[in-house]
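Hey, resending since the last one bounced:
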Amino acid sequence: MAQQIRVLGIESSCDDSAAAVLTVDDQGGADILSSQVADQSLLHAAFGGVVPEIAARAHTEKLDIVITAALADARLTLDDIDLVAVTSGPGLIGGVIAGVSYAKAIAAAKDLPIVGVNHLAGHALTPRMTDGLAFPYLLLLVSGGHCQFLLVKGISDFHRLGGTIDDAPGEAFDKTAKLLGLGYPGGPVIEAVSVNGDASRFDLPRPLIDRDDCDMSFSGLKTAVRRTADQLAAAQGGITAQDQADIAAGFQNAVADILVDKTAKALAIAGRLNGFAIAGGVAANKQIGDKLRTLAARHDLPFVQPPMQYCTDNAAMIAYAGALKFMAGQSEAADLIARPRWPLDISVQPMLGSGKKGAKA
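The structure tokens again:
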């Protein structure tokens, strides 16, 4: 009979305070009993991006609320929990500290084991949690803070094939939306405006697609958008709604083309796979999702796009990854620390360089 444990997961690495309760067995099966997320979008909208200090303060106010709600939804109490799993990095350090502190307090009060989870590992294992995708598979993690191709071979066996050398796509979406005066978060508003746009009107670049590796760049594309908008504004005294739609459509199409081109190269490098999956907030974009689904079909590979509530930041993926880690014999003592930087694959050079506190990604 499979061993089962009940896990409380806590996630606070960026701007979502989240908690979830799962039952996970030692064969990798999962039953998501509850998943709660307190979104902070309205707090950051005026700034066009996440403000770390505001995010950290909101986590301290919301974590106990989402934890209580997750337990209530699961019809359980802390006395029914076998394990606490928490995101301990990478992320905005104030938020990560808040989550780790809550998790350590609960574990100490109830004498429970605690596991620190790499946020990226949570995303990487989500296709297994939601769809039972067998190892090995290729994951494109594409979000506001990350963009990597990960060859997922096991619960702690990840190999990064490539990623962005500058901006993450979600960050580029947010900055482009702010530049065009479309609001925040950028992904949904650009996708909505693009419906009425002409993606071919402006010749926007597709950086690095002439290279055979899996690395990507979005900073130059973002700069080209700014230059295009500035030229229009100078020539006609501002930009019209149609200009906004056309630029947004061209930008979105360029991002999709870059991701498809680099995914094809990653698939060629990866070798035998049981599937291709995407995760992260940008995975919600229909044009990007449809193009990647078509690419997977051409390679005769199952395409997994988890339900959107488990693609974006959530605590269910943290609970799942933590449970697998714990059942494999990996757990932390009470001195678990919060890490602003925590590369998932330490066998390759950091994409974004290193600082005094270690590799960024």
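The radius of gyration is 20 Å.

Sorry for the duplicate.
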